[in-house]
Amino acid sequence: MSTDHSPEHQGHTLSGEHRPDGYEQTGLSAQETRRDFLFLTAAAFGAVGAGSVAWPFINQMNPAADTVALSTTEVNLAPIEVGQAITVMWQGKPVFIRHRTPEEISEAESVDVAALRDPQTDDQRIHEGHKQWLILVGICTHLGCVPQGQKSTDVKGEFGGWFCPCHGSHYDTSGRIRKGPAPKNLAVPKYEFLSDTNIRIG
Amino acid sequence: MGSKERKAFDNPVIEWVDSRLPVFTMMQKEYGVFPTPRNFNYFWNFGAIAMVMLVTMIITGITLAMHYNPSTHGAFDSVERIMRDVNGGWMIRYLHANGASFFFIAVYIHIFRGLYYGSYKQPRELLWILGIIIFLLMMATAFMGYVLPWGQMSFWGATVITNLFSAIPLVGDSIVTLLWGGFSVDNPTLNRFFALHFLLPFVIFAVVFLHVWALHVTGSNNPLGIDVKTEQDTLPFHPYYTMKDTFGLLVFLMIYVAFTFFMPNSLGHPDNYIEANPLVTPAHIVPEWYFLPFYAILRAITFDLTIYLAVAGAIGAVLVYQYAWKKTPDKIVADNVLILLAVLALFGIPGALLAFFKDVEALKVITDNIPLGTLSLMPAKLGGVLAMFGSIALLLVLPFIDTHPVRSARFRPWFKIAVLTLLVVFVILGVCGSKPAEGYWVPLAQIMTLAYFGFFLAVIPFLNNNEPVLRLPDSIHQAIHAAPKAVIGALLAIGLIAGMPSAAFAKSEPAPPAAAAEEKAEEAVPATPEAATGTPEATDADAAATSEEGAESAETGVPNPPPAVEGEGHAAESEHHAAAAAGGHHSVALPNEHWSFSGPFGTYDRAALQRGFQVYKQVCAACHGLERIAFRNLSALGYTEAQIKTIAAEYTITDGPDDEGEMFDRPGRPSDHFKNPYANDNQAKASNNGALPPDLSLIVKARQGGANYLYGILTGYETPPPGTELSSTQHWNKYFPGNKISMPAPLIEGAVAYEDGSPTTVSQYAHDVAQFLAWASEPEMEVRKQTGIKALLFLAVFAGLMYAVKRKIWSKVH
């Protein structure tokens, strides 16, 4: 280009001169500062605009209102016999509900908590007064497979609870990790007893 | 793209990348220092604007595709779920739907700019052809996208457009079956349209890349149409045009945002909020506005090609060729021109009589007795399709038709008149396309079609040989000081684009009575955009924006197209089998009620919503479902969670199967939806004398006139005029299309006991329930308008800032 029109070369530098407004410290003219302020404000507007436009396009991927509204499941426990287990669906995931036998309960309570990988007492994993009901999210904490042990014919692992066939994690009758690669106990979902035989998960 | 001329970058990371793949060098060369003529006006913004719209469409489209279900059972429901349940889904969908229109607005202006300033001429022929290919791809994409919501217009639009191919001789029907993947538009059709609608934008993107590449080889044209001669004629693209484009873009986005957030459905059709029904066609189907001119050309060919027309046409073609395309006609033609004209008349007069006056009773004696009058060389259907595709094909070959050495219309006084006339012709064609094909609209469309083809095939070739030319300036640099202020041009352009759709397509006043329809339409012709704001949709508009558009489009002097449609024959009640309703005309102008939710700041009145809900529950719900509303949605009416639980529990919901495999009843929960009173449509019809009471979830959006229409129907019962025959199951309603309605007057004074002391009159009930159903149709309306106001304010300030930035940067140049 024969003439330089780029904005960097406009305005005059006043460095060295004393000015009461302090511009000499920055070496910028008032005109230059005003211009830079304008450019920066415009750039800031662009950034804010782009950000606020981007958010709805990200947020649309979060669960929609109808999905959120369906995030609770009610279960009637009455038909479940002692020693039986059922699997219900909650938020698209399997939830294990086991009606534990007294032996299973005492086995779970007698474990030395300090020796566990994810130390938790059995009491912390059930609701008070409802010891027999063990309610767990049926997803192995290793990499998300569904462990076996719900059906009477299933392999229940070395600790009588659940066994994940994908990578060999063993859970006990409280759903705690005892052996294998999984880092955590099977999760206990949020639930409440609506009556002695009715629960709402979620 | 080699790296030999590369200059090192200071930043080591950039330098590392650039020395291996010189993308930064390329960006610097093509978008940084790229020498650009310094005299662009604001019409040169629209390429960048179109690019932004393309990206907007792709981003909104991909996010919509994450929630869309391309099946005939799921499509309509999934779109409604996007509107009601997906986070911000209503905004994304409205941005996409209106974005299509604004993409076309930008592209139409871009094309017209190319026409006016001769940007298609040597050496930019290929650049232009690639652009027209983009335009064709856009039309295909837009058409298939409009099918996806699976409303009535989607379905019937798909049916009509795919049937165009049946006009092809011999193989036409097989091609249509192939396109459908069946024997009608159905699930396979919807599936493939979705796949192609997803694919084509990326094809467009690829062609845009070629288009821009070709542009960067030849460099841009400019308003003077003369070549860049020295560096003094150009400026680096950045920051001069990056900043100018950004400012123009922001102004354009403001109009786009105003439509999207304040009148999102004004460019669409109410019928598309009725789910597709393969058994009932809406009485008046029209394509989206951007197809209207081509649709008018399609419909203009109402006649078969007779032997007379063929001979007359051939002689006409010879004469046009000899007198327009050639500098001087061949001697043999010039000497015998009178004979040729006589033969032309000899064949042309019977040809014209057969084509245009066949139905005139007085001429029957003549037309019936023309020998070989019924011999058809080409059916009208094929003629229409050929004319429509031909009208686009002409744009493709335009660079080879127009060989005049001067580019810009600024220095071609005759071409300037011709090309502005073409614009007017194109707009009139668009208006014709929006009207039912009857009355004077048909000959008008035919004359305008002839004018359109005449421009390309006779006028341009004639100008090639005969047009006097003004003196061209020596250089851009020299001419620049005389250039007018570009801002005015930009404002005019914006006024033009904003005025066009709002005037032509915001549906104006309620429909005129059937008999007076033609008269009324005549009156409507000179109306301005403001006149078109009769409906709540249109009054929704940002008042300021509307008046601005009006004022500016008036300035341009380009005649605004008359407010289109008038809802003639909008078979609003197409699913309401009730009406023996032939034409589907409203009998009387709809009442113009005051609604708290109209206007850009309007909100729903919570008390009225609750009263309206009460009326729905106690009266309407006996026959009408409200299936898209869940009890949890009632929180928007001001009910607490506990109240909603109580309301939900009053309903019995069938759930299951339980452990024994049985279905069982349980009380409703907030997440349940309102139940349809009937098990299925057949039961509903059987219980209502064959009439199907429509679901009310979308009724306000699905009817021309919206809440006013609903209010009108509920209050419009009258004793029929003497002499009217009504069957025992019909009632007379002055606002119902066709007047004969199956639904008996539903509201009776005092029938619903209001707790808040509001009057228990029919008019109050109707007003409340119409408001409640307006909410049911558009639950997002309040947050939509609030978001719109924020977005507009932000854009206005940003545009102001960018204008200041642009001025600052350009201050050295001016």
Describe the secondary structure blueprint for this structure.
The complex is a heterodimer of chains A (202) and B (814).
Chain A: H1 23-26, H2 30-59, H3 65-69, E1 73-76, E2 85-90, E3 93-99, H4 102-109, E4 133-137, E5 160-164, E6 169-172, E7 177-179, E8 191-195, E9 198-201
Antiparallel strand pairs in A: 1-9, 2-3, 3-4, 5-6, 6-7, 8-9
Chain B: H1 12-20, H2 23-32, E1 35-37, H3 46-65, H4 75-84, H5 89-116, H6 125-147, H7 152-163, H8 172-180, H9 187-218, E2 234-236, H10 237-262, H11 292-300, E3 305-306, H12 307-325, H13 331-335, H14 337-356, H15 364-367, E4 376-378, H16 380-401, H17 413-434, H18 441-466, H19 476-479, H20 486-505, H21 517-524, H22 536-539, H23 543-556, H24 606-618, H25 641-649, E5 652-655, E6 664-667, H26 681-687, H27 706-715, E7 731-732, E8 740-741, H28 762-777, H29 781-810
Antiparallel strand pairs in B: 1-2, 3-4, 5-6, 7-8
Outline the structure in words.
The complex is a heterodimer of chains A (202) and B (814). In chain A, a hairpin with a 2-residue loop joins β8 and β9 (198-201). Chain A is α+β, with helices and mostly antiparallel strands and 202 residues long. The model of chain A is unreliable at 1-17 and 19-25 (pLDDT under 50). Chain A has helices at 23-26, 30-59, 65-69, 102-109, and strands at residues 73-76, 85-90, 93-99, 133-137, 160-164, 169-172, 177-179, 191-195, 198-201. Chain A is built from four helices and nine strands; from the N terminus they run αααβββαββββββ. In chain A, 23% of the residues lie in helices and 21% in strands. Chain B has 814 residues and is mostly helical. In chain B, 54% of the residues lie in helices and 3% in strands. Chain B has 29 helices and eight strands. Chain B has helices at 12-20, 23-32, 46-65, 75-84, 89-116, 125-147, 152-163, 172-180, 187-218, 237-262, 292-300, 307-325, 331-335, 337-356, 364-367, 380-401, 413-434, 441-466, 476-479, 486-505, 517-524, 536-539, 543-556, 606-618, 641-649, 681-687, 706-715, 762-777, 781-810, and strands spanning 35-37, 234-236, 305-306, 376-378, 652-655, 664-667, 731-732, 740-741. A two-stranded antiparallel sheet of chain B has the order 1-2. A two-stranded antiparallel sheet of chain B has the order 3-4. In chain B, a hairpin with a 7-residue loop joins β7 (731-732) and β8 (740-741). Chain B is globular. Chain B starts with 11 loop residues before the first helix and ends with a helix. Chain A binds chain B through residues 1-3, 5-7, 10, 35, 38-39, 41-42, 45-46, 48-49, 52, 56-57, 59-62, 64-67, 69-70, 79, and chain B through 33, 59-60, 63, 66-67, 81, 84-89, 91-92, 231-232, 235-236, 239-240, 630, 632, 659, 670-671, 794-795, 797-798, 801-802, 804-805, 808-809, 812-813.
